[in-house]
Give the backbone structure.
Amino acid sequence: LTIAIGFKYRASLVIFGLMWAGTYYMQKTIYNNHHYLMILFCIIMLFLPANAYASVDSRRNPAIRRYSMPYWCIGVIIAQMAIVYFFAAVAKLYPGWLDGTFTRIMLPKGGTHWYTRMLTQEWCSYLIAYAGIAFDLLIIPMLLYKRTRHIGAVASLGFHLFNSALLKIGIFPYLALALLVMFYPPEQIRRLFFWKKPPVVDDGSLIKSPKNNKLLLYFFVPYFIIQLALPVRHYFIPGDVMWTEEGHRLSWRMMLKFKTGKVDFRIVDRKTGEVFGYDLKNTLTPKQISSMSTRPDMIWQMAQYIKKEYAAKGRDVAIYANAMVSLNNSPRRPIIDTDTDLTRVEWKHLTHNEWILLNDK
């Protein structure tokens, strides 16, 4: 609320960003790219003069009041959204999406309404699959080009409301729709929403200033290099990212696959040789078990947790995992080497972990 009304804008943004990031990073079960996007926007907005007009801050301190902002402020937001859409489109270019497999799984089954019956048709699965790719690839160019801007806005409205109603994907559809104003001329937006505001006059100061150039050079250039590098890192890691999950996070790989699995841990006391299992229900919620069972990094983390639990009891144990996973309703296959003691391996963040079996057969 304090961010929305512009009260102690940057302090409020820092507090909100830290709390949001803390909630996001303290758990892995409910992973959502859109939550990550909110963190990025919190970072970007720290550098934007969003409290310079129609805010409590500008009323309390008229010296900060401005009726316009440099074009780069809009540019960095558009660039961030362009990265999101582009890599979301690239991620869809895999067989399970192109042949309609995932969209058939994703779409609701049953129902008596005409639209639910339509969604079960084969042609509809292909239509949604390829329309999704086309939208992600073309929406930013369409919104940037004056002649197709209105068409892009209407397409965006339909696309995001469809996703919100059908897929229940949270705040992203409405965030994306709200950002449509960034693509229209400032004077047009002023007349539509801020008619009491003085007309926008471009005297050249909106384009650049030495201070803004330094900010763009020293912060936003490295920032966008990182944003471009993260989504492609999985190309340098052996294996299918859909299967291994290595390089999946922070890469705009949204709503691409359906995975199910089951994992059992085998614990061996190194001193006595005693072998026993581990009841995950005593430690994790059903949602956590379901999420962990298909993700090697979470299986590894669970093994470290079990190791510490037994170490507290004075027992030195080896831990092995038998994890069977299905990708897009395919037959279940092992994803973890059952002969690997997970307590003796470290997690590699930027390279392949050899104990994760590849889905290459």
